[in-house]
Structure prediction request, 200 residues.
Amino acid sequence: MSSIWSRIKVSAAALWCDSRGIAATEFAFIAPLMLVMLFGTIEVSSGVAVDRKVTLVARTLSDLTSQSKAVGDADMTNFFAASYGIMWPYPSAPVRATISELYIDPNTSVARVQWSKGSAPRGAGSTLGVPPGLIGRDSSGNILPNQYLIFSEVSYVYKPVVGYVVTKAGVTLSDNAYTRPRQSTCVFYGSETTCPKTGT
Prediction:
């Protein structure tokens, strides 16, 4: 009986000192965590890159439109096409973009839509909040007349390649931009706009 216990003690001591499987065991525990961190970092980096491109699309749309005295359907198609090219190498299909021209009412400081084109056009005459810093005022604090803004809105549904790392449904990224018309008081869109305008 004592010899059996002796053998058990020797076997236990040998097993305790045997470290041949430690690396494999550690790898089994660490590998899943490292893979999640790797793919998570890749997805977050891609998401940040796409978010930056969405911002560039918004700025490009408002910038291109504000450089024109008048625009038509063909111009709008070209503006959207040029802006969507910014999204490369990411797909441009999820992009939803709208360009609107806003008139600032000097009596109420409310912005009203003159015309709107794109994925989700706003109704003509509808109101929209504008950052106070974009509304020009004279030295007495009165709102200057005949103020127009080109307003672009862009949204993009970013779907991660590894959906379970971030979110399977995707993340909606959005941005907007305001620019003032550069060549005239406002940007004409066919017969839908008349400017300068002094009332509501």
Q: What stands out?
A: The chain has one domain: 29-189. The two ends are 106 Å apart (CA to CA). The mean pLDDT is 80. Helices lie at 2-17, 22-66, 73-84.
